[in-house]
Automatic annotation (TrEMBL):
One of its GO terms (molecular function) is DNA binding. Residues 99-150 form the RNA polymerase sigma factor 70 region 4 type domain. Pfam families: Sigma70_r2 (PF04542), Sigma70_r4_2 (PF08281). This is SigE family RNA polymerase sigma factor. The keyword Plastid does not apply. Belongs to the sigma-70 factor family. ECF subfamily. It comes from Actinospica acidiphila. PANTHER family: ECF RNA POLYMERASE SIGMA FACTOR SIGM, RNA POLYMERASE ECF-TYPE SIGMA FACTO. Keywords: DNA-binding, Sigma factor, Transcription, Transcription regulation.
Length: 171
């Protein structure tokens, strides 16, 4: 089967097979996907398909098997999810983290990147330089300026909204 013959076969059989697989799966998108995948596999063996008396039956069989395989995988996943305990809820970020993120957003991108990579990702100055493509001296300057700006931003936030009340207790 040459390319033109295969194209004609595809054009004639695809709508019919998609309709059949839609009836089988109940999902048009799924039917189109498995029929398309079956045709991709048929393309690789198109020379043997013409020798076969029923190339459309071969494509239909492959598409049906793909649909069943997908259904089984989905069923196994659903069973796994049903037997797994639901994840515990994670509390949202605390006020300190929120203040830090807000302060980081006020920094220029290059300083913010350097501070995050160095202090939050635990990369060395040399690793930050390698990752950002900046010289080591530039990274050091960005870190210094970024830390100073963060200190100013966080000090202003603390002055406006004190986190500590008298007696050392959080308010």
């Amino acid at each position: 089967m040459d390319e033109d013959e295969f194209d004609a076969f595809y054009a004639a059989a695809f709508p019919r097979l998609t309709g059949q697989l839609f009836a089988f799966t109940g999902d048009l998108g799924e039917a189109q996907d498995v029929v398309q995948e079956a045709f991709v596999r048929a393309w690789d063996r198109r020379h043997r398909l013409m020798a076969d008396e029923a190339p459309e039956a071969w494509v239909r069989t492959v598409a049906m098997r793909l649909a069943v395989s997908r259904w089984r995988r989905a069923k196994r996943w659903l069973e796994l999810v049903r037997h797994s305990p639901p994840p515990e809820t994670t509390p949202g970020p605390g006020p300190d983290r929120t203040a830090l993120v807000a302060a980081l957003r006020q920094l220029p991108e290059s300083q913010r990147m350097a501070v995050v990579l160095h202090h939050l990702c635990d990369l060395s100055v040399e690793q930050v330089a390698s990752e950002t493509g900046a010289p080591v001296g530039t990274v050091k300057a960005r870190l210094s300026r970024g830390r100073a700006a963060l200190a100013r931003h966080l000090a202003v936030d603390e002055a406006e909204e004190p986190a500590w009340e008298e007696g050392g207790r959080v308010g």
